[in-house]
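Teaching note: in complex prediction, the entire set of molecules is handled at once rather than each chain in isolation. The prompt given to students was simply: 'Predict the structure of this complex.' The entities are:
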Amino acid sequence: MGLLRRIRTWFEDRSGASALIGPVMTHRVPRSAKWWYVFGSATLMFFLIQIATGIMLATLYVPSAAEAYDSLRYIDEEVPFGWMVRAIHGWSSNAMVLMMLVHLSQVFLHGAYKYPRELTWMVGVLLMVCTLALAFTGQVMRFDQDAYWGLGIGASIVDRVPVFGNELRAIMLGGPIIAGATLSRFFALHVFVLPGLTIVLVGLHMMLILRHGISEMPKPGEVVDPATYKPAYEERIHRTGVPFFPDAARRDMVFCGLALLVMLGLAAWFGPFGPGGVPDPTIIDTNPRPDFFFLWIFAALALLPPAVETPLLIIGPPVLLLAMLLIPIMASRGERAPSRRPLVVVLFAVIVTGLVTLSWLGVTSPWSPQMDGWTSAPVPAEFVRGRTPLELQGATMIQFAQCRNCHSLGGLGGERGPALDRVATRLSWDQLVRQVQQGGGNMPAYGKTLTSAQTEAIVAFLATLRPDHVPASEIPGALEVSPGRDQPPMATPDAPEPARGFQ
Amino acid sequence: MNETPKPQRCCDGREPSAGRHADLRIHGEASGPSGSAGTPKSARAGDDTARGAAGDRRGFLFGAGAALMGIGGLLAAIPIVGTLFAPARRGNPMRWTDLGPVDQFPAGTTRLATFTSPNAAPTDGETARDACWVRSLGDDRFQVFYVNCAHLGCPVRWFEQSRLFMCPCHGGVYYEDGSRASGPPPRGLFTHQWRVTNGRLEILAGLLPGLEEKT
Ligand code: FES
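The expected output is the structure of the full assembly:
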């Protein structure tokens, strides 16, 4: 006992540890700091797990384009616990991004970034950038087809930067193509640069939290005024605050513990992410998709009109970042309660709705052709029953000409274009012919590919899908007279071929 | 003799700098811990000149230190920054690359051809491989397209029956001659320059295509 105490006293005297850690542990926090305040701690906990599992993975992973893929397979299949370490690293990274977003939302909605915590917010924004960058570079470490083509998309975006585009892209890729040097660069970023930066920023973030104290739950009517805030806060916290440890830490611990268990459960149940196919650019039967936190960008890239795409891609991110950094400068005082800041709440709702919608669209990606739609999606039997040979030929042609990659029939097939089931109720016979041959509205022109007889067969088939009681002539916008099914209107064998090419 | 000026220097009213603490300790005992009180009057008379000379020397040392650090830092930065930026300065990466004998590409077909990137490094593994679409027009005339979509680089796929290239990412579609048919791509497919040498088809390859290039 005496020895232990002497060791403690010696250590205390030489290190000054309790003088250093004591105030950190017992600093007073507002009594109102309830469950809303646990998400920052959870983000940090998942980051620590990333460091631990990341170091273990670094002992096993080979960051060489020639061997990365095999080393991942080896970690998953041969190394004891290897798959679990990869699973935890993957799931914990998702959890970290998620907790970071919830924490960010809470701070934003509660106006906790206002005076005197502006700098805390700014450092937090930089931490967000680091977290997302870690997530993206982490996806590259999983060196599979998604990683390869994800890099390709990143490179194409960087390449669009005016003047320096080519050079920037070469610097990003480490050479003229995506290859070994690219993986090495991203490995250095993912393993040294970004974690190091994150650790420094986390330290700064915590230091600022200690300096200014944790913000109280916002109360309507309690206005932040830089002239009076600090003394009033000090006074309140002294009167009603509680020590962080153990009072507030209890909640952090319970939440972090639960979050940790859930994450471990997911990791054990679902296992590691990927790797998907071999990162071989000659394998083009691939369907690259980013991880979930970048799906919204992926969706935006499909939906933006080409004219605004490049400017938005280049100007958007820096402007967004700057805006986020400057929020606390522009609104450093005033009400904090969400009920008194309707504009902020609406803005938040719009952003979240937008991101969730885009992400969901990214999951379903209705704009992508379903590459095997033409071979895998059957034609429902009732759609061919009792049809004439010409109409049946049309049904076959629709499969053969890959129409089903973009158009569904009976709910199966691509979703890029309108479903074919009812298209003849919107367009007349002539309009259908023109649409097939000349395209337009995001449909390629088939005038060069299909003979007029083939086009006619297709249209004849589509016309049979029209519900019996809705003649096309009665549908607004489809006023042209449709020829009867037994009088093919056009392209008798000796008639000239319809105008070709629409280019 | 040499004991008197030193305590003076270190205790002339300014904060002693960190590097001089050793001086303070060693000589402090002789002249008393806080200088001016224990310093003889005669010594204080020479204060100004001593301070001036010492200040000069300190200023010089500081300047020299800063200059040395600066020069050293710049020298060290050359290889560090150089390595980072080196890829941007490599000359033209395009090289004539063999795709195989011309008769592998019968007239009227569009086929995927694979090759190894002329800039491949030994550690590139599968990523050193590359592919392109060869459209043979007959009579040794060709069109060679990059597999990379002109939108953001995903690999486009050829559909023989509809004579279209389709991109799996955002739904870009191209006609058989590479021109844009629909979707987000701002232009047609990028093309490789090609030539036929001794009955073999060769293309200029070695760089990922991008909008900034005029391919
Ligand atoms: S990459 Fe092909 S459409 Fe976007």
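Point out the following to students. Residues 1-43 of chain B have pLDDT under 50 and may be disordered. Residues B 149, 151-154, 167, 169-172, 183-185 surround FE2/S2 (inorganic) cluster (CB under 6 Å).
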